[in-house]
Amino acid sequence: MDKRTLLRRALTSPQSLRFREAVVLTEAFGFRLSRVRGSHHVFVHPGVRELVNLQDVSGQAKAYQIRQVLKIVERYRLVLEE
Fold this sequence. Notes:
Distance between the termini: 12 Å
Radius of gyration: 11 Å
Structural class: alpha+beta
CATH architecture: 2-Layer Sandwich
CATH class: Alpha Beta
Strand content: 15-25%
Order of helices and strands: HHEEEH
């Protein structure tokens, strides 16, 4: 799926995003997977002091975590990589 389409879906309906789509979107903003502990996938970004945590719950991403990612993207003015 196109990254811009994923971003639109995340903005309009974060509860509908699958976990894999959330990972693709997070990585499209320059984050990289740092570690996995259980269902927690922790992502880091070289220009961001905050960590991003995503959980895989039966293939779905948690909506509040998607909203947190979007707030970090906005706060740090990150751009979507192609």
